[in-house]
Amino acid sequence: MIEFTLNGRQVRTEAEADTPLLWVIRDEFDLKGTKYGCGVAMCGACTVHIDGNAYRSCSYMVGQVAGKSVTTIEALDNHPLQQAWIEEQVPQCGYCQSGQIMQAATLLEANPNPSEQDIVNHMSTNYCRCMAYVRIKKAIQRAATESQAGVNIFDPSAPNQEA
Ligand code: FES
Ligand code: FES
Asked: Where is the signal peptide (predicted)?
């Protein structure tokens, strides 16, 4: 029995410890946003966050996440990157995109004002067979700019800030 946190919820699995995390996420917890691409940690389609860092879930065994916190694209609700992705019309076939966004999210978390080279370096291990790289870069730049401009997304559950 392996216990971990998945998108903020405590979960447990009977999967063998050497089962790729990707299969557990997709097949047991039915979170299909994380994609299988190469299966050998090369393409980035399967990127998730583990304790806040980006990892390749195809090559990360579920036994390694015991006691850790895993976040998938499904929990990235209303992230500035998602709006920027829409505005820049980034996806083509879409297959690589959740991995791209999860990878980009860790960049903006660590560096809210990345240079173009920072973006290129951070995203260089995520492949897009449709060659959407220019739009991916523009969307990350837009999300960074808009986040810094203080564009807030309305959260109806947030307490009223007005006196
Ligand atoms: S499917 Fe995991 S890196 Fe390609
Ligand atoms: S949008 Fe098709 S692989 Fe990236």
From this structure: none
